[in-house]
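Service request form, structural biology core

Requester: graduate student, group of Dr. S.
Request type: structure prediction, single chain
Budget code: on file
Notes: please return the result as structure tokens.

Sequence provided:
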Amino acid sequence: MKNHKILIIGGAGYIGSHLVYELNDNNFQTIVLDDLSTGFIDNVDKRSEFIEGSFFDKELLDKILKDIDVVIHMAALKDVGKSGIMFNEYLQHNIINSLELIRLCIKNNIKKFVFSSSAAVYGIPNYLPIDEKHQLSPINFYGYTKLCIENNLEWAAKFSDMKVGCLRYFNAAGYDMNKRIIKKEKNPNNLLPIVMEVASNKRPHLDIYGDDYDTPDGTCLRDYIHVNDLSDGHVKALNFLDSHDSIFVNLSTGIKTSVLEVINCAEKITNQNIKFKVIGRRGGDPPALYSKSILASSSLSWKPEYSNIDIIIKTMWEMYK
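Core staff response, request fulfilled:
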């Protein structure tokens, strides 16, 4: 496996750049394809070959894939709110272009395909913690786009020799424990980087989307996973696919943290006042979403090491302060 070439699509992005370091640390050969619309070339590990371009470019993609064994697809539009008002853009980017990528991978005999999926495929939980047996019923278009690609990959694995790993991320956060990432995420829309921007005076305040949920403090509960742990999950998934069939698996911690708990923790670590305003609920937000990743533990021998909220916020503050 270590001699195989891996193409990381979106490998200059926030999660992608961390993953590329992890792959190289584990002696994989890596090629990064990224159009730099949201990523930074400065964050790409110099041990990797870098190609500036889009996976929308079918001719370029077809040419690259002829010399590739494994594809990791991390390039997606990911703003839950915008997915409900930018239907055409999310349809084209997350579904149509991703389906074309899958077709070209099968054409070029790609051996393994690892897909960055999301806990958004589950929708409103019927029970908690969520496991992989939970029904898949997304409540926003972003989640639907992830489920659509998962479903097509499941069929692709049946009709080709390509093995598939769909990794359902919960809330990725934090920065590299070894401080190798130089540039911060562009235009973040997730809670933790926005908290960091308020703490570092880049924003006057943050908006809390509702404080009247049926949770201990009224704000949403989420499962935060350190990006280094997430990267380790990808490596273990690749190793798993060496000798097993396809897998659809949650990558999470089972630790649930509310919005207000995140703010309180950030105030202690940064020694800053995190100003916020409570506004109306946002469509597509379940009150609580967390999972214990029992399958990842048993099948991948994966265990999160850095996903304590204090460690997550401390590594983020190192980047933002």
